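Reviewer has doubts. Consider these tokens.
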Amino acid sequence: MKKISIILASLAAVAVLTITTSCNDEWKEEQYAHYISFKAPLDANGVSPIYVPFTRKAEDGSPLYSSDANGGLGVTDYLLPVLVSGTTNSDANLNVHIGISDTLNILNYERFQHSEEIYYKNLADYKNASGQAFCTYPETIEIKEGESKALLKLKFDLNGLDLAEKWILPLTIVDNNGAYGYRAHPRKHYAKALLRIYPFNKYSGEYSATTQQMALEGTTVNPGGLTSRAYVVDENTVFFYAGNNIDELRNDRHLYKVFARFEPTETNPNAGEVHLWAENPDLHFTTDTSKPAQFLISEQQDDVQPYLVHRYLTISGIDYKFDDYTAIEGKPRTYRVSGSLTMERQINTQIPDEDQAIQW
């Protein structure tokens, strides 16, 4: 009986060792396929927002691409991760081919039906005044053997890009049915990136407009809208849409741009004047140029997370008039806009890259 017990115990030990060894061997093997995909998660609108500084700058504050046109002003870049899926790293060098996706037209129709004025526009289809593409990138990128990621460098020249349009760069992984030695990820959206471009400067972004008021001329002042977005024009200039009731979903939004140029004082780069104007003569835009609006930037350390800084930009003394001449055909209405706007940025001081440090 004792011998039988010893034999059974030995067999059990061998079985456990075999199972354990088998599990370990399986774990060493690839559990999934080595598919190629982008890291570009979608937001509620079905696109991937990316934030890029209007001018990419070196550590000393000078434009990184100073040898480019305009001394590098308006030239920036973005690093888009390209990933190899799986539980093990690639066992060979992979030359991944990048192309333009054909899904933007589908997205536009699904989102906006026949309202083509508010469609997203394909950035790859447009060139600047010099005939150059607004974005360039390599057609192939290498993921080295033993690695699971590479960074696709997208280089943007934003000079002349009208942000009244909603720009998308639609990219896709091209695998030529496996002929390139890899396969694009088959799961929906993984092998495509619909990048919504949001350039920013020191003054652009989403402002709270609860203290900005708009009133039909001759009537009582009514509270304004909740927010107002400022879009980049150049390093020191942004544009808003006039008033508080026009946004990027209005078909004729490009007619209602109000420009704001920020001019810091000689002694304080975080305070100064804001000069407002409009280029569309049909707006009949007026403001008291002798009393320009003022801006002030202040910072406050977070009470709970000391590495987090809250940066506030307030524009005060806003006061202008404009005509809304398209809402009711043939009957322009004059509005007065007054008050202030405030923008907050939360900045993680532990992250050196500006576009990554700002918590968008």
Observations:
- The CA atoms of residues 45 and 111 lie 8 Å apart.
